[in-house]
C-alpha cells in the first residue's frame, strides 16, 4: 500500500521540527546528566569515606555527594542543551532552511559561548 499511516493536517510536515525536538533534547540531557552525576557522586562518596565505618554519617555523606553531583551535572548538560536548541531554532528560522549547517553552527556557537565564560 502507498497510503500514509497517520492522518496529518493539511500542510503539516511528516517529521518533527527543530523546536519540537528541543524539548526532547533538553529533557534527555538533564536526565543523562543527573544519572551520570549520581554515579560519579557515588564513586566520589565511596572514595572519600572509605576510611569510615558503615554508619549513618557515612551514608549521609555519600547521599549528599550523589545529590550534589547529580544536580551539578544535570544543570550543566541541561544548560548546554538549552543553548544548543535555542541557537538551532534561531538559526533555522533566520536562514529559512533545515539542513546540517544549522546543526554545525548551533554546536559551534554553543561551544564558543560555553568556553567564553572561562570554564575548563
Automatic annotation (TrEMBL):
<protein>
    <submittedName>
        <fullName>TIM23 translocase</fullName>
    </submittedName>
</protein>
<feature type="transmembrane region" description="Helical">
    <location>
        <begin position="21"/>
        <end position="42"/>
    </location>
</feature>
<dbReference type="GO" id="GO:0030150">
    <property type="term" value="P:protein import into mitochondrial matrix"/>
</dbReference>
<keyword id="KW-1133">Transmembrane helix</keyword>
<dbReference type="InterPro" id="IPR045238">
    <property type="entry name" value="Tim23-like"/>
</dbReference>
<feature type="transmembrane region" description="Helical">
    <location>
        <begin position="72"/>
        <end position="91"/>
    </location>
</feature>
<keyword id="KW-0472">Membrane</keyword>
<dbReference type="GO" id="GO:0005744">
    <property type="term" value="C:TIM23 mitochondrial import inner membrane translocase complex"/>
</dbReference>
<dbReference type="GO" id="GO:0008320">
    <property type="term" value="F:protein transmembrane transporter activity"/>
</dbReference>
<keyword id="KW-0812">Transmembrane</keyword>
<dbReference type="Pfam" id="PF02466">
    <property type="entry name" value="Tim17"/>
</dbReference>
